[in-house]
Amino acid sequence: MRESYWGRYWRRRRSRRSFLIGGAALAAGSAGLVAVGCGDDDDDDAPSEPQEPAAEETEAAATEAPAATEAAAPADGPMPGGTFRQSKTQVDDGIDPGLKVINNNEILARIYNHTHLYKVSTNEFLFDAATAMEQPDNTTIVFPLRPGMTFHHDGSAVTAEDVSSTWSRFPALLADQGSQVNEANWGFMDTITAVDESTARVDLKAPAASAPVLMAATSYGIVSKALLDQQANGNVQELDAGAGPYVIEQRDSAGVALARYPDYYAHENPSTHFLEGAPYIDRHETRIIVDRAAVKAAFFAGDIDYIPAIADSIEFEEFTGDDRFVAKEVASTEARFLAYDNIKFVDKRARQAVSYAIDYDAMIATLYAGDGVYDGPVGQALPGFALDQETLQSYRVFDPQRARELWEASGIEVDHIRIESSIDPRGSTMAEFLARQMEENLGVTAEPLIHDVTTYVARAREPIKQWELFVVPYNASTTPEIYNMTMMNPDAFAGVSWSFGTDQPDASLVANAQKLIDLTAAQAQEVDPDLRLQKMEEMQLFALEELVPGINLPVPGHSWVVYNSRLGNFPEDDVLLGGLLNRTHDMYVKG
Q1: Domains in the chain: ranges and CATH
Q2: Predicted local distance difference test score (pLDDT) of residue 334
Q3: How far apart, in Å, are the Cα atoms of 219 and each of 113, 232, 263, 530, 582?
């Protein structure tokens, strides 16, 4: 019997370090990445390899992961009930999963269901609305749907027509309504068809190694076609059109409250982190807390259960040694990108000057307390893909004299550099550091511009930029396309946000943009693991050599997870890379 496509692919991978085949866009915990617009976030050792799929002619290579064998629960073990409490800095801009992904992940992940999820730490697919993911050939993916799923608003059945309608509208939402879910997240899909009521088929434009995990993103939440068709504006921004485990009870300027959906469907043979019935937790509450000090105070007081975005090891130490909390140091899942307004930096010498003006070692010493590493177009959280430290450091040389010479030679008409950042402390402190670097080492005046997330997003997307440099802190993602490259690809953020697209008036800028588009597409469509690595290296070296469309800055050498010890089954290994926190069903509140 002919071996299935994904069977061959996984078999090729088994002798290599982890070669992830996909990845959802990073989770909304990072204001930077999500704000500018995305879809949906290890140590140096490779993640555990999945079991090789059965080789069947037309059956799945990616099949439902079996549930772990359940031991007898102790008296204080998992029990239904309780409330999980978290915080965010700002109200959302809407809750249509195909349109908005800013400050709303804790809603989208819980009121909508998804065909599948991807668990990074174990490199496995977890099935939700689908019971399997079948790959009969390298350009077709088939999802058999689970029975008994119903939408919240009217109790109608979820069918393959809803899946087809939901996923087919991505291009129109981007073109007509300015969706924050960019093409890198869905551009590999050609058609989505309802084969019958319980089977959805996706035909790809070309082989796409990362497609299965990209499709696990929160933005792929299944929307009711019937409810969507009733909306004159073509979206469900203010409506619950989902069939997930929770319904909206409160959503206002104070925060969000979600309660159980009483008719939530059963998961027969549930995947890891799913249960046969509903999730353990009864209720989820999210408070709007803008000030970081207030977030910490709420956490120490026991008013919230999880504190996101730990800035560095110094802040992490504030939470250690206290039995009320679990504080865990993990491998870095951070990313930092410094984008140019590329239309102002068409001369490569100007881009080089900015790079030479940055003391990267001082950045690591100052901002990361000495615990930092260099980063590149494919980030350090994907060690099987990333370039080595020696190579990256060779492109990040501090030379202020050379910086001033190149700045002068470029003839750039910029004598004041505005550095945009959000209120995220990871970005604002970076912007302040870079402003000092530009003044001291480039001989210009500079100022950090710190804005709330909504303003920050709007300023990134304005056609005429009110800044020269833009700082983006964000969490890692699980594919090269949606990790750092989503910031750099003209078909993702870079075209709109960094003036780095094929629609720009400068010929050299257009040529660089097209080259990076082509290189990104070439590695994405290559399903041979060894050849893909070669093409990925070519893509990375081009971006580093040309300094387009910005600079991958050093990142912390570690990341940190801190949560209240009253929580059981907290997905600490997947909360930063993969965003499983808002989607797990087996987390519980201890009695």
Answers
A1: 5-287+574-589 (3.40.190.10), 334-556 (3.10.105.10)
A2: 86
A3: 10, 21, 23, 30, 13
